[in-house]
Design brief:
CATH architecture of the largest domain: 3-Layer(aba) Sandwich
CATH class of the largest domain: Alpha Beta
Strand order of the largest sheet: 4-5-8-9
CATH topology of the largest domain: Rossmann fold
Mean pLDDT: 95
Helix content: 40-55%
Strand content: 5-15%
CATH superfamily of the largest domain: HUPs
Number of domains: 4
Low-confidence stretches: none
Radius of gyration: 32 Å
């Protein structure tokens, strides 16, 4: 069987979008499913917009999502000599030609076509048979155009959309090289041909490019790969995903506190399905993924579902790993890890209640900052028996031989029984005056994490 080779080929002109990340996941999954190779190629021929910083964003995004590639990164700008070699081949075979039309000429041509109600397109004025006898204008740098077939059709069996046919009469002679730099439609064919890419998996916005590229493959006598076009990702309103819908950059989700495995899982499920399976590991995806299971309909982002999925991964995550990820977030909020209990234990307590790492950090913050007590809240907490209950609890806590959640819970129960009070009469001053928090997780565990000495010190301060 022929080796399966897939690639992701982003342009380093900005952030790494969710759509690019999803395509990368699918390319990775196809390669891993068949035991093939997954390549990373950087399409950096747009020298105006391409930046080193954007390249780094791509590399960082791939690393964060744990998308390991077998070859690359390969940079198009390192391959200019190869593109020139193939252009020369097409010129020699009559499949390409020099075009000396100026931008002004082409603008006039399109305006006239619009006036006549025609589809704007290059009219082939510099095709060899049309350019006979024409003087080559001075000072005009020619571009090189691919000579598209005039008749017939281009048909391919798309792995997602099924058979697609386009008439060659709908296509004009596209530019394949300008000032020694290849254009997208040409460079991508040469790259995929040279790199023996078997499956070209990309967004549905590239469907219009595919017949042009197939004609170039045919002109080169190259094998045409399998094409699979993925419907675009839409916002909750069904419109194309954009900044107005919120975050569209993969690494922004890292900043917001999502786990990479949750984003990986969520994006993979966005437009693909395997029965009712919602949650799966990278290894499981590689085992079950099939392009045929991709939907032909656009997928809609569902932020609530993403939060739910991330929370499931948070619950299962190793506490020490969560602590490492949460520590800088707590410090960014002004907390000092040295001031509080073991962070891994705090994460174990709070993680099931937190949808993101950022929410976990916010929930844990009260363990790692000096308490700031609101005087009005303190007065209210100590009213109606709260002062007496808190004082009695302090006595019982101080008398414990061993401080465990179970023993602390018994102290709370004993105070409630002796004072004949409901839980909130004691729980409120404990939260407000000891924890300095509106809400806390299970109070007995929370007090154990804060530590007996600190709890007693805060009780004394509150009752002073």
């Amino acid at each position: 069987m022929k080796e399966i080779r897939t690639r992701i080929a982003p342009s380093p002109t900005g952030m790494m979008h969710l759509g690019t990340a999803r395509t990368a996941i699918y390319c990775w999954a196809v390669a891993r499913h068949f035991g093939g190779k997954f390549l990373l190629r950087i399409e950096d021929t747009d020298q105006v917009r391409s930046t080193k910083e954007a390249v780094q964003v791509i590399l960082d995004g791939m690393k964060w999502l744990n998308l390991d590639y077998d070859e690359g990164p390969i940079y198009q700008m390192d391959r200019l000599a190869r593109y020139q070699e193939v252009v020369d081949q097409l010129l020699a075979s009559g499949h390409a030609y020099y075009c000396y039309a100026t931008p002004e000429e082409l603008d006039e041509m399109r305006e006239e076509q619009k006036r006549l109600g025609l589809k704007p397109r290059y009219d082939g004025r510099w095709r060899p048979e049309n350019a006979k006898g024409k003087a080559i204008p001075e000072g005009v740098k020619p571009v090189i155009r691919f000579r598209n077939p005039d008749e017939g059709t281009v048909t391919w069996n798309d792995a997602v959309y099924g058979p697609i046919t386009v008439a060659n009469s709908e296509l004009d002679d596209l530019i394949i090289m300008r000032n020694g730099i290849p254009t997208y439609n040409f460079a991508v064919v040469v790259d995929d041909w040279d790199m023996k890419v078997s499956h070209v998996i990309r967004g549905a916005d590239h469907i219009n490019n595919t017949p042009r590229q197939i004609n170039i493959y045919n002109a080169l006598g190259a094998e045409v790969p399998v094409f699979a076009h993925l419907p675009l990702i839409c916002g909750p309103d069904g419109q194309k995903l954009s900044k107005r819908h919120g975050t569209v950059s993969v690494l922004e989700y890292e900043k917001q506190g999502y786990l990479p495995e949750a984003i990986f899982n969520y994006l993979a499920r966005l437009g693909w399905g395997h029965g009712n399976m919602e949650k799966f590991s990278r290894e499981e995806l590689a085992k079950i993924f099939e392009l045929a299971d991709c939907s032909r309909a656009s997928a809609r982002i569902d932020w609530k579902k993403l939060d739910w999925l991330n929370q499931q991964y948070m619950k299962e995550a190793d506490d020490a790993r969560l602590a490492e990820l949460v520590k800088p977030r707590i410090e960014a909020h002004g907390g000092s890890i040295e001031k509080g209990p073991d962070l891994a234990q705090v994460c174990a307590l709070l993680k099931s209640r937190s949808a993101t790492l950022e929410k976990l950090a916010e929930s844990a913050l009260f363990f790692y900052v000096d308490p700031k007590i609101d005087p009005a809240a303190a007065e209210a907490a100590l009213a109606s028996g709260g002062r007496e209950a808190l004082a009695l609890f302090g006595e019982k806590l101080a008398a414990l031989e061993e401080v465990t959640p179970e023993n602390v819970y018994h102290c709370i129960q004993a105070v409630m029984t002796e004072r004949e009070i409901p839980m909130k009469v004691l729980a409120t001053p404990l939260r407000v005056l000891v924890c300095a928090a509106d809400r806390t997780p299970q109070i007995d565990i929370t007090l154990c994490l804060i530590g007996r000495d600190t709890v007693l010190e805060r009780i004394r301060a509150a009752l002073a």
